[in-house]
Amino acid sequence: MTESERINVAIVDDNKEYLESLIEHLSFYPEIDICGSATQYKQARELLLNEDLDLVFLDVEMPCKNGFELLNEVRKKGSTFSVIFYTAYDKYMIQALRESAFDYILKPVDPKELENAITRFKEQLASQTHSTVVPLFLGSAGSPEIIALPTSLGLRFIDKNRILLFRSISESSSWEALLTDLTTIKLGATTKAEKIMKLLTKERFVQISQSCIINLIYLNLVEFKTRDCLLIPPFDNIRLTVSRSHLSKLKEMYEVF
Questions:
Q1: Are 119 and 147 members of one domain?
Q2: Which domain holds residue 22?
Q3: CA 157 – CA 67 distance, rounded (Å)
C-alpha cells in the first residue's frame, strides 16, 4: 500500500466507550491511520488543527461546544478534512448536510454502514487524484442548496451541488441521481423526468434526452455534429449523448442559430 492510499483519521467523541468501539471497528481497515482521538473540546481543537487529516469522525453533542461549532471554528483556520458526523441522534441530519458532511452515522456503529462510508470515501479520494476542478458555481455558491429527493424509503435531503446528473434505469424505468462521489440514489418508482425538473433550478440543470438530466456546472462541451456531451474532469470518462430534439431546445434556449 502506497503512502497516498493511506487515510489519516481522527475521532472526536466525549463518550470513551463509543470512542473505543469505533477505534476497534476501524482497526480492521489497514489503509486507515488513526492519528489521534479526543474527548474534550480544547483537546479536539488542537488535534484537528495540528494533524494533517483526511477524515474526521465527529460527535455532535459534547460539553462546552457542540461538534458543529467545533467544525466551523477549525474550518475558519483553514482545515479542509472531510467529516462523518457520528452521533446517537438522527435529529441533526439536516444540519449535517448543511455543513457539507461527507456522511452521517448513528451510534452504536453498524459495521456495514461504516464499511459503506469508508468505501465511498476511498472512491472519492481516488477520483480526486485524477484531476480536481472546482466549477464556477461551486466556487461562489456559499451555503449548500438543499433539496428533497423522493425515494422508496422516504425523502433524501442533499445539496444540489453534489448531484452530477440524473439518469433513467432502463431495466426498471425508474430514475437515479448520480453524485459527484459516483454513488447513486435510487428515486421512487413514480418519479419521472418532469417531476425531477420541477425540483431543480432550470438555470442549473438541463435535460439532454428522455433518459438524462445534467447539472450544468459539470458540463464542459456539447458537440453539434456528434451530439456528444463532455463533462469536466474527473468525470470526462462518462459518455453522454444529447438527443436531436433536446439539442434543438438547447440551441433555442441559448440562442444558437
A1: no
A2: 3-130
A3: 20
Asked if residue 226 and residue 187 are part of one domain, the reply reads: yes
**Residue 226 sits in the same domain as residue 160:** yes
Q: Look at residues 155, 154, 149 and name the one whose alpha carbon lies nearest to residue 176.
A: 149
Q: Are strands 32-38 and 7-12 parallel, antiparallel or unpaired?
A: parallel
What CATH number does the domain containing 210 carry?
2.40.50.1020
The segment with the largest mean pLDDT, out of 23-32, 58-67, 121-130, 217-226, is 23-32
Q: Summarize pLDDT for 200-224 with one digit per residue, the tens.
A: 866 678 999 999 999 988 888 888 8
For residues 157-161, give the mean pLDDT: 86
Cell 442548496 locates to 145
State the cell numbers at 10: 481522527
Three-state DSSP class for residue 66 = coil
Q: Which of 75, 73, 67 is nearest to 14 (CA)?
A: 67
Please check whether residue 80 is in contact with residue 74, taking contact to mean a CB–CB distance below 8 angstroms. no
Q: What is the pLDDT of residues 106-146, one digit of tens each?
A: 888 889 989 988 998 888 777 655 444 444 444 434 456 78
Euclidean distance between the first and the last CA atom of the chain, given in angstroms as a whole number: 54
Q: Which of 95, 130, 165 is the last residue of a domain?
A: 130
Give how many domains the chain has, as a whole number: 2
